[in-house]
């Protein structure tokens, strides 16, 4: 009996030991798995959140890599020597990193500029396939293989492809490049071609480079080094500030013609209508002065800036599309009109085909009236002057503008007429001293 009891007890202990061992092993596996998931989660968060954290140290490291590759003959550009050798480019601060895009503030020969690149590293851009083909075919490296006409041909094709324009569109290479080709019939080095090709893979660069020869309502590109390009520094808008544009930042903006009549001080009264008139002029340019209408699909204060002469400038055109590409974007499957909204560009859903219409239903002007003009000229900002006849008429015109679709030029003309009247009235009031008609001066924004 005792022997049987011992055997049973021994079997129970062995079974419990195995059970405990299995549970311990399972617990260890679970702990290891949880640790592995935790560590990988940290790596994922670091790569996706903190890797794009804007710091001065990282920005300087990026620019140093650009200079190292310039010294090695990998890349080139008219900004490189001043940045990497002469020290005429002074880094100021990191502005922001977003989805790989790097944006930094700097000073080039005493002029404030903004340095931009869609990707951090030069090697991240696709190489020019023609050069690789020549190398594979036993070429000499490409330095004397491509003629200036070849460069024009391939660059123009890339520009048209990026902008979504058909090959028959009358679009030439930007004027600066054309001038360089005319000045010298020399062939271009591998570094120059590789740098040009990296720039042509950046949609914003192409837009600004092409449009700056056609309109003064886009930021000007001043130079480049490899994949980084320098854009003029301007007083950008702020969504959190009811004044939108800051006088302090405006003072840092370069004047179009230093020392000219344009470099003047404006009164707080006429600044607002002048800026609004410049918005209207920009809309006219983008709708009528190019081979295709240009649509702005992300309209907000941060994407615009002003120069010292109060010209409105589009500084972020990542969401700007010419008509052919806009139609391709809008035409997609749908079940309701909400499926046809592409940021600020919207169309309607054809329920019979379950397909969005290719034509945009709203307009640049309508969205500007809704998102920018309506807050500017709201009764809340105007206070006691909101009830004055001219202000009431302007508020009504802005409200009507924000609610219309395409084809209402009458509202645009009415807005222009009211704004011109405000400018003329404020200009006339400047010399009246104590007899000024203060009740009619627009003070929606206290710049």
Would you mind describing this structure in some detail?
The chain has helices at residues 2-50, 56-71, 80-86, 129-136, 148-163, 175-183, 190-200, 203-211, 247-250, 268-288, 323-330, 364-376, 379-382, 389-403, 409-429; strands spanning 89-98, 101-108, 111-117, 221-225, 228-232, 235-236, 294-296, 304-306, 312-314, 320-322, 341-342, 345-346, 349-350, 355-356. A hairpin with a 2-residue loop joins strand 11 (341-342) and strand 12 (345-346). The N and C termini lie far apart (102 Å). It has 15 helices and 14 strands. It has 2 domains: 44-233, no CATH class; 247-440, Transferase(Phosphotransferase), domain 1 (Orthogonal Bundle), CATH 1.10.510. The protein has 447 residues and is of the alpha+beta class. The strands form 5 sheets. It has a 5-stranded antiparallel sheet, with helices on both faces. A 3-stranded antiparallel sheet has the order 6-8-9. It has a two-stranded antiparallel ribbon with strand order 7-10. Helix content is 47%, strand content 13%. The chain is globular and about 105 Å long.
CATH class identity of the largest domain: Mainly Alpha
Mean pLDDT over the residues:
79
CATH topology grouping of the largest domain:
Transferase(Phosphotransferase), domain 1
Helix content: 40-55%
Count of individual domains:
2
Structural class: alpha+beta
Q: What is the overall shape?
A: globular
Q: Let me know the largest β-sheet.
A: 5 strands, antiparallel
How large is the count of helical segments? 15
- Identify low-pLDDT runs: 42-51, 140-144, 258-262, 431-447
CATH architecture of the largest domain: Orthogonal Bundle
What is the number of E strands? 14
Q: How do the SSEs run, as a string of H and E?
A: HHHEEEHHHHHEEEHHEEEEHEEEEHHHH
Portion in strands: 5-15%
Radius of gyration: 30 Å
The N- and C-terminal alpha carbons lie at a distance of 102 Å
- The largest beta-sheet arranges its strands as 1-2-3-5-4
């Amino acid at each position: 009996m005792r022997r049987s009891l011992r055997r049973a007890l021994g079997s129970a202990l062995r079974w419990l030991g195995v059970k405990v061992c299995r549970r311990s092993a399972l617990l260890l596996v679970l702990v290891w798995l949880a640790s592995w998931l935790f560590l990988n989660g940290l790596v994922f968060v670091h790569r996706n959140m903190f890797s794009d954290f804007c710091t001065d140290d990282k920005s300087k490291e990026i620019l140093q890599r650009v200079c190292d590759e310039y010294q090695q003959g990998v890349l080139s550009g008219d900004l490189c020597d001043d940045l990497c050798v002469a020290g005429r480019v002074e880094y100021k601060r990191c502005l922001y990193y977003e989805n790989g895009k790097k944006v930094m503030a700097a000073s080039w020969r005493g002029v404030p500029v903004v340095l931009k690149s869609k990707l951090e590293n030069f090697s991240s851009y696709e190489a020019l396939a023609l050069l690789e083909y020549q190398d594979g075919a036993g070429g000499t490296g490409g330095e004397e293989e491509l003629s200036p006409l070849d460069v024009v041909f391939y660059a123009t094709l890339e520009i048209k492809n990026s902008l979504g324009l058909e090959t028959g569109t009358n679009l030439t290479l930007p004027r600066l490049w054309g001038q360089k080709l005319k000045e010298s019939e020399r062939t271009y080095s591998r570094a120059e071609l590789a740098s040009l090709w990296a720039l042509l893979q950046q949609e914003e660069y192409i837009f600004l480079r092409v449009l700056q020869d056609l309109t003064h309502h886009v930021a000007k590109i001043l130079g480049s080094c490899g994949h980084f390009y320098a854009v003029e520094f301007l007083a950008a808008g702020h969504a959190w500030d009811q004044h939108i544009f800051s006088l302090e930042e405006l003072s840092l903006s370069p004047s179009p013609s230093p020392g000219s009549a344009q470099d003047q001080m404006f009164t707080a009264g006429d600044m607002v209508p002048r800026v609004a008139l410049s918005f209207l002029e920009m809309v006219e340019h983008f709708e009528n002065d190019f081979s295709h209408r240009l649509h702005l699909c992300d309209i907000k204060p941060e994407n615009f800036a002003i120069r010292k002469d109060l010209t409105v400038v589009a500084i972020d055109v990542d969401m700007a599309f010419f008509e052919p590409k806009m139609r391709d974007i809008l035409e997609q499957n749908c079940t309701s009109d909400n499926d046809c909204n592409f940021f600020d560009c919207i169309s309607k859903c054809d329920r019979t085909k379950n397909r969005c219409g290719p034509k945009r239903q709203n307009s640049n002007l309508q969205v500007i009236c809704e998102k920018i003009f309506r807050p500017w000229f709201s009764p809340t900002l105007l206070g006691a002057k909101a009830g004055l006849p001219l202000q009431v008429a302007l508020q009504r015109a802005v409200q009507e503008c924000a609610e219309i679709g395409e084809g209402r030029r009458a509202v645009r003309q009415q807005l222009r007429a009211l704004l011109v009247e405000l400018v003329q009235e404020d200009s006339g009031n400047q010399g009246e001293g104590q007899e000024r008609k203060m009740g009619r001066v627009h003070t929606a924004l206290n710049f």
